[in-house]
## 1
Amino acid sequence: MSASFFTSRWVDVPDSVTEVPGAPLPDGFRAGAAAAGIKPSGGLDVGLLVSDSDQTTSAARFTRSGAAAPPVIVSRDRCRLDALRAVAVNSGNANAATGRQGLDEAARMQGSGAMMARTSEDRVAVCSTGVIGVQLDGTKTVRGLLEAGKALSADGADAFQQAIQTTDRFEKRATIDVELPGGTVRIAAQCKGAGMIQPSHATMLCFVTTDAVVPAETADLLLGVCVKRSFDRATVDGQLSTNDTCILLCGGASGVVVEPQSQAELIFGQALDALLRQLAIAMCRDGEGARRVGRVTVRGGHGPNVERVARAIGNSPLVKTALYGGDPNWGRIAQAIGMALPDTAPLPYDITIEDVPVCIGGNAVSHDEDDLVRRVAREEVEYAIALPGDGFETEVFFSDLGHEYITVNAEYTT
Amino acid sequence: MSASFFTSRWVDVPDSVTEVPGAPLPDGFRAGAAAAGIKPSGGLDVGLLVSDSDQTTSAARFTRSGAAAPPVIVSRDRCRLDALRAVAVNSGNANAATGRQGLDEAARMQGSGAMMARTSEDRVAVCSTGVIGVQLDGTKTVRGLLEAGKALSADGADAFQQAIQTTDRFEKRATIDVELPGGTVRIAAQCKGAGMIQPSHATMLCFVTTDAVVPAETADLLLGVCVKRSFDRATVDGQLSTNDTCILLCGGASGVVVEPQSQAELIFGQALDALLRQLAIAMCRDGEGARRVGRVTVRGGHGPNVERVARAIGNSPLVKTALYGGDPNWGRIAQAIGMALPDTAPLPYDITIEDVPVCIGGNAVSHDEDDLVRRVAREEVEYAIALPGDGFETEVFFSDLGHEYITVNAEYTT
């Protein structure tokens, strides 16, 4: 298997999975893109992704934000989410905080996408990403979608990827072949996201396409579980976006069926899980200037506390700057634990960094500091926390916080 | 009145208040400091603050952290918090995550402080600030406290201030005279704190001394209210510390009594409120490299939601980097509101920045962008949020997030 995509030790890649070079779309899908003048750079900023089969099934997850953008509201409320056939996307403008006009513009995108995809409007999801609070220029998106529609091609994944990206430093996508008992199926995932990322349901934009035949309920189940184990566990800056969307389209061109509760479902699910987990980690690695990615695992006897502690650590600017600096300053982890669990002092907690215990029962323990410094200078750093009790465990992937984050974010709109 | 301390437009300074140049201690107090070799710099790092009167009353607030440091636990559990007479402090080491040995070291500091202050141990609070997870060298603190005790002087406030500081860029302290109906009293406050700051009860270290005669219950009431309106409303990085402590010592040398529910109590309270609010804002201004301070006020019909939104905005790295960059990117404020109130979309919220409405009912409204850019380039920037309903209002003061924060925090222990 090629090692070009699955680089993280935190992802178990099943033997049934083979990476496909060039990350093409599965059979039965076409994509196209256009430069519609929404991005100031003049780059590709409108994309259309289409499944050719009328039998296409789908599943979707959206941000839970109270300020969810019009495209999210339109996709969520005006689509057959179990039978989507196309996605119309723009980058450079999130069409968020844009009110009724924003809803109208999202609906226009949906209409244009449906026309070019030759399907009904309720089978077209719309997504936007970019700056918040600026009205989307409908003339541009409609023109862009017409152009993207004309450009639709089985080889369109490259252009589509460029059209969905904003501050991303590298492409986050891959295609895998998965050997199921009934034959080989292909899954492709195209993802964008670097900042404003702390998924709740889904995060950022992620479009997964497969030529497997997947009943809609199974698609929904698998996407739900895999999103929970991937994007839901990733944080760049703790900021839930207005536009997060993750869509799975199952076109069925392979003819290989993923039956509910079958061996095929298990293998397909494991493959999808590996794909989305690696993408979530890649998103953290691309976390607006990030140098390193951390994973914190927390065990303990109380589920909500385990979750609180993991989030507190993954979102602590002090922990994140230490990660950036290659600094094994575990006192900041102790601080984050204490903050997450107020009024519990003295709390006996254990902290282990890269297999080196540094704090046991809330007390510092001696360790080889030079060795630890070397361990936290690697690209991935693992923190393991034990709270009192047992029975619950969670993990959070997180970016470091460095100068590039400041540079990117202090100068984004101006 | 001198303008040297009260610089913020967000602090109402009562007419009864006059700033005292040089920020001396009130009558009846002495302070001393020593360089005990705890700070690598070799600077002053141990301090002792003593009230001469055996009748001294007091009040205190501590961090709620589940990882509260041994000095906090010793002060909280082994002191007469209504009758403290002295505070023994060290900087350079937080004596946190240090377990039983840390408790022993905190108790030794308490004992040494009591000896030098000539009072009982349960009337001496202990405080530590600095790096977490390193055992405190008791030989150094004891020697330092003996030396600080010998140096005790009515003029000791300067040295004491230096001894309590860590990454602070400037001194945060002031002394005011307050005209009460029965005569003039003096209040001094000495404060340290720049990072790891999101108070819950108290924050950072703050020592308030006054020569007023204040019944302990009144002292507790006033300190509680004023801390809630000042340090509890400030955030640098959203990080509750392991060591936050705020102590009020009332020595009584002026003979002027602050009776419960009297006019004197009201005026004294207003003065203390102004003092602590300005200190809280100064702490944000000193927020590890901060360039600007923001204030967000949130109004609405649901108390917890109002609080959630204010914290989400004040702690958003995206809002904070925009503040740093002088960027009126209010879309990030919309995002933070939506994140704080999941599953409420479409939520009608209003955003006003420096009196310029930019978003009404969740929809962008046109405004003079150049004018807004000029307004957000000032040292203090005000954001006003309106949520549906009425009856609740809160505020949060917050630092921006810039390159200096990264520099300071990526290179702190190493």
Note: The CA atoms of residues 59 and 220 of chain A lie 5 Å apart.
## 2
Amino acid sequence: MPRLKLSNRARQTPPSPIRRLAHLAERAKKDGKSVYHLNIGQPDIHSPVEFFDAVRTFSDPVLAYDRSQGNELLCRVWADYMNRCLGLNLSAEQFMVTMGASEALVFLFMTCCDPGDEVIIFDPTYANYIGFAAVAGVTLVPILSDLEHNFALPSYEKIEAQITNRTRAILLCSPNNPTGTVYSPEEIQELLAICEDYNIFLVVDETYREFVYDGLEPFSVLQLAPGSRRVIVVDSLSKRFSLCGARIGCFVTWNEEVLATTLNIAQARLAAPTLEQAASAHMLQTVSDEYLSRVRREFEMRRDVLFQALEQIPGMMAYKPKGAFYSIVQLPVDDAEKFAMFLLSEFALDGKTTFVAPASGFYMQNGRGQNKVRVAYVLESHELEHAVAVLRAGLEAYPGRTE
Amino acid sequence: MPRLKLSNRARQTPPSPIRRLAHLAERAKKDGKSVYHLNIGQPDIHSPVEFFDAVRTFSDPVLAYDRSQGNELLCRVWADYMNRCLGLNLSAEQFMVTMGASEALVFLFMTCCDPGDEVIIFDPTYANYIGFAAVAGVTLVPILSDLEHNFALPSYEKIEAQITNRTRAILLCSPNNPTGTVYSPEEIQELLAICEDYNIFLVVDETYREFVYDGLEPFSVLQLAPGSRRVIVVDSLSKRFSLCGARIGCFVTWNEEVLATTLNIAQARLAAPTLEQAASAHMLQTVSDEYLSRVRREFEMRRDVLFQALEQIPGMMAYKPKGAFYSIVQLPVDDAEKFAMFLLSEFALDGKTTFVAPASGFYMQNGRGQNKVRVAYVLESHELEHAVAVLRAGLEAYPGRTE
């Protein structure tokens, strides 16, 4: 049979740096090793019992389609939740429920950009943005933020220099995945000013909004620009409520045209899952504020434990992040991907090894991040300590160590 | 504030003909009318209790991400299910679980086609294919099948005449939505021959595979071409098990390159919903064959009831379909969309009205289907009879009737 050519865009979609070494982890497990997963933002935190209560008591005998724009009650209670936490005045009509923040971002790329249009992002970036852009035919324009400056946002001038007549939006993940950076209201106000000056959208992925530490308070770009038709917030229940598997996200905006236009795309895929939407609505109405405070304290403690352990590693360099649950960690190796593979395939300490995500996959600019990894501190403290001990011992045993 | 331009592709994505009059139905309900929904393929059949059993007994305290290619058990039992029903020899590795057949089709458009590439479809077509193609930048090339010939597939020569050097695939829905047509193995063999002659993919959406009547047996294109790397089947649990709201679909193929390439796209969106996948796996393992036979008998009876009622309408013309649960019905009106709006907004019989989908939205070729509607016989018999009685009375009262 002659070869059947696949599309260039699909062949150019990079594998996820978070998942592409997964087969090595599976093999390690089959070989009897246990693996500490610091590669993926999958917390071990128990999901709220209120979610499972609603799942168990779902009584409709037909699992029918919900509305394309999202379950009506869920939109309402999500608005209530954000209004309560952030002092906003959102209404249900401004919400579009999506299958995770992922689908929200794909929808927004489709709605705001034609193929070849550009979106400015900051490097390193959440790797899946690269995949969404590839399928949507959108050109991401990366602007470097660097470890030496705690991944602070570049200046107005540096960003301005990258704007062309194809630029449609700036996309920011705040608090940041993969760096853990929390941006100040002033920094985000500056981004908003650029977007106003150049009449482009500001899309902020606030999946980690509540995960801020050291006394910081959750903050949304919506607080800066009430009523703005330029601002679109992407949100998700995945991390906040440890509901990664529910695949419930949304975007929220005051821009009715964006909502109406995206609805046509949303109608083609019919609807997000019914059961998860119903359970999420019940959960948002009934979960106590204490759930989130407890989770936040837990992650803050884990961050401290992680950094105490990391600081024991000679040649390690990292910035102690103030948000989310990731950190970009520079290691004394030339090629962090090879080191990550070494850990999975050739190393174990007491039958255990550690899975970290090579940071190069989070950089769009070639050659960046090659001596760095992304660490997700999603395990409990004593496991984190062990995981870093494995990493440290692995470095000592690694032939490619640079010092 | 200056206007923020949205993308041309989003503005060109048509609203779903199934859902775009939904606001009129909502208003009718608010005005106290009850509405028979024949517009949407949302069956009233109870979902299998085995699905809800698994939902209720889900005991993992963390609702975590599943694998990007789909829950391992679900892939295995879906293969078992198809092997048992169709005498095939599929393995779990050939499956990619998706969020409904919708996501499978978007993935395949992305993987098989670059923007501007062409896919041949048959007009009328499942309207959402038009939406998927719009977001994927794929040009659908429609070839007319007509009511007068029971929507049979066009000849080899007619199809061949539409193939260009941009054609990447033929896409068929079999049994067909919106026409209810069941194609013979010989007709599908002919399509396969064209795809072989021109080295393109054959994608068959078999969402309605088990819904065949008059003694016909379920049939899959996979039976015709075991091992073929050219054939891709899209499948879904939505209709077969009345699980529309679960959003669980898949595609299955012997083409490892398609699976591996699509996996990079699938990884970017992380995974399909965990709970629905686990519940679907349990359901497929435990649901009795009697469930599906009963559902099939029920729809066959409804079809007969629908047609008995339709035949009382003067000037009506329709083909009694042998599969799925739709029919394209020609009515004595010039503009079926106006008539559908009239039914929702201006008409009621004993406080009730009927919602039908204007067929023009299922035709890509302009001006086709304007005097036709798509009817989904998804309600129980006495409701269907009432719904058609409303339609008939509505036609009598409609000022735009053509005879």
Note: The mean pLDDT of chain A is 95.
